[in-house]
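Please check this chain.
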Amino acid sequence: MSFITSAAFAEKGYVVLDSYDQAADPKEWLDLEFVDWKSSGVTRFAPLASAFGEMECNGFWNHTPPRTDKDGVWVQANVDVAPILKARAEEPGANIGRCRVIELQPNDYTNAIYNLHQDDNNRLNPEGTGWIVRGFFNLSDDPSSVLILREDRFNPDTEVRIPLPAGAQVIVDTQRFWHAVWQVGPEPRYCLITSWESGPELDAYIEKYHGASNNVNPPLDPQVIEDAQAEVRRRLAERSATLASQGKKLADPVDPEA
């Protein structure tokens, strides 16, 4: 299938933008209404835009009529208390699908690797329209934490680790990458996540904020990586055996909120 995509993602599939001065803004996310919604880890979400403006996080294809992750409707109760976050999501001028703030509790590297998943936000996306990518704007200050991206779920040689201090801004083709966040803590991580449609508007925004994909991974002990790989395979084998005993099959994890 042929979609409108951005040249900025052609080689590496992600871009890191100029850092945002997060300290200059109020902590609007602390006043949002959150709903329980399972993603990769112990999470809650505060929806800013949803399928019909309701306080919920379901995929747009699970509504009537079903559609792809575009044309989100603002959740008035939350955008009323977070006008700056809404404006940041709107700045590119691209079509917005879901937009929400995630709250992720601290985890460890092994659990982050276990929770790696690919998004499915281009489900029902018509051929010839813009491919959906996602912006991750870190709100809390988590300089020891990283967004983990892998093109091959089980190959750590494909791993990209992007640090997450306050103001970090990353746009990712999350249907290309297996991804999750290692939130070192001790406090929860908060991040604004926005689905955008690729096209000239998003391209201009990426250029304006000097989007680049020359990230250098923070160092990580190879033994930590090896141990995590072994533990993840053990857990998956155990889960697969349990499901097989129930006549079921282990499916590749696709984020339920994707």
